[in-house]
Sequence to fold (189 residues):
Amino acid sequence: MVTTGGAGTVTTALLAGVPLVVGAGLNYFGAEVMEVRLPLGQAAGGLLLVTLLPVTLGLWSSERGVFGGHSKDLIHRVATLVFVAIVLFTFFDQWSAISDHFARVGLASLLLNLVTMGSGAVLGGLLGLPAASRVALAMECGIQNSALGITLAVTVMAAPQLAVPSVIYALLMNFTAFGVIAYRRLRAA
Fold:
């Protein structure tokens, strides 16, 4: 059973899908009956911190020209290092669970990644974005899933074992991202 709220059960449109997906995942993978508390405020803050805030700040600062080339590169590198550190920590911390569940979760994670990246590219096309921006949107959509899953599992629900599918997703996401990058470079050459 997955619930939201602290003293009672709270339902909101923003977080209604997260408990449903977590509950369906626990049921599908045969988890024993367990209660996972999803504190509404902490979950909303985590969602804001991991998804909406970085994208909004990045787009805003890019549009306004807030950071020059050197600063932009430095921020990009620091953000990448932080993301890699979180994924690596969770990867090594949960290695036995990952190896135990890769066969069951790997294909679903790969399909989710491809659908998410494809949706980002299609959305970019519908918005009339240039090719480079469509690829950037596809990559960003792909990356956000792993960051969101790891954040919810580790910090919000305090259940690192629930981060295993997100870490597997992050691992596979790197292969699809490198595939897109390689394809674009070959096409440009």
User: Anything to note?
Assistant: Helices lie at 17-28, 40-64, 69-93, 95-126, 131-156, 164-188. The first helix runs from residue 17 to 28.
